Amino acid sequence: xxxxxxxxxxxxxxxxxxxxxxxxxxxxxxxxxxxxxxxxxxxxxxxxxxxxxxxxxxxxxxxxxxxxxxxxxxxxxxxxxxxxxxxxxxxxxxxxxxxxxxxxxxxxxxxxxxxxxxxxxxxxxxxxxxxxxxxxxxxxxxxxxxxxxxxxxxxxxxxxxx
Length: 162
Known about the structure:
Blueprint: E1 28-29, E2 35-40, E3 50-56, E4 66-67, E5 72-79, E6 82-85, E7 90-93, E8 98-101, E9 108-110, E10 117-124, H1 129-135, H2 144-153, E11 157-158
Antiparallel strand pairs: 1-2, 2-3, 3-10, 4-11, 5-8, 5-10, 6-7, 6-9
């Protein structure tokens, strides 16, 4: 494996760092008390990746098994216990655990502990997942056909658990 081709050709470097303070309010709050912080979106990373802090309340929440055709997804558990489906079974993960799911990998995640939990979600490349997260708020207002189109547009393909 080698380094990718250069993307910056200047001689001096530039001032271009992005900063998001720890105390910034979440970008999105769900009715169940969960929230999402858009730490680095595809727009702020030139499409290289998207990094989000996903905070789950004690209420049971999270997506059923699915896969993505265009993006990989990684999980880093910050607090609590989050159950992640690895394509064969649900496994409880604790703070410090890391899970990477390449394109096409079946996965899902849930908080079933009854306690709050938090994790980092990273998508590569940096697809506009913010639109997906925000669309979840109105998912119940969509017809079955509209819901199917929404998931296809956002590269979510649902499967039955094995």
